[in-house]
Amino acid sequence: MRAVLALLTLATLAGCANPPLPAVDPGKAWIEMFTTTGRLVMAESLDGRKLNDGRYFQVDPGSHELEVRFDYEMYAGGGLVNDPFDRTCYLTVRYDGFKAGQRYRLEGRAIAMQASARLYDSNREIVAEDRAIHCIP
């Protein structure tokens, strides 16, 4: 019985595993996604083109517009209903100074029921912030 349970657990975990990330191209900038206040932040589109893998951006040096999907829970507060509800926001960040071989971090945040995004360089300095936000609901 234990062997069957262990096998089922391993099969379930293997089905949930993501494919490995591609190798980092030293001629491009790498942007990773991160959040501590939300459930999910995923790359959605680069310069208006949809992406196949939302776990990262890898861009040529120069200027780019990044759109990310950011999911988080929001509490309506007040009244008798105090259950959280899911909120999805699409945040657009534009940065003109991407450098080849550099790593960046795009962080989605939800503070005081408002979504936002910041782009950090490898020195942990803010280089860009969201300039457009569209949320549902």
Main features:
single chain, Lipoprotein, nine-stranded mixed sheet, 1 helix, mainly beta, signal, 137 residues
Give a verbal description of the structure.
- The chain is mostly beta strands and 137 residues long.
- Strand 7 and strand 8 form a beta hairpin.
- The radius of gyration is 18 Å and the shape is elongated.
Helix and strand pattern? HEEEEEEEEE
Number of helices: 1
Overall, the morphology is elongated
- Class of secondary structure makeup: mainly beta
Count of β-strands: 9
Q: Please mark out the parts with pLDDT under 50 across 5 or more consecutive residues, or reply none.
A: 4-8, 10-15
- What number is the mean pLDDT? 85
Intertermini distance: 46 Å
Rg from alpha-carbon coordinates: 18 Å
Mind summarizing the main beta sheet? 9 strands, mixed
Strand order of the largest sheet: 3-2-5-6-9-8-7-1-4
Strand content: over 45%
Q: How many domain modules?
A: 1
Keywords: Signal
Protein name: Lipoprotein
Organism: Pseudomonas baltica
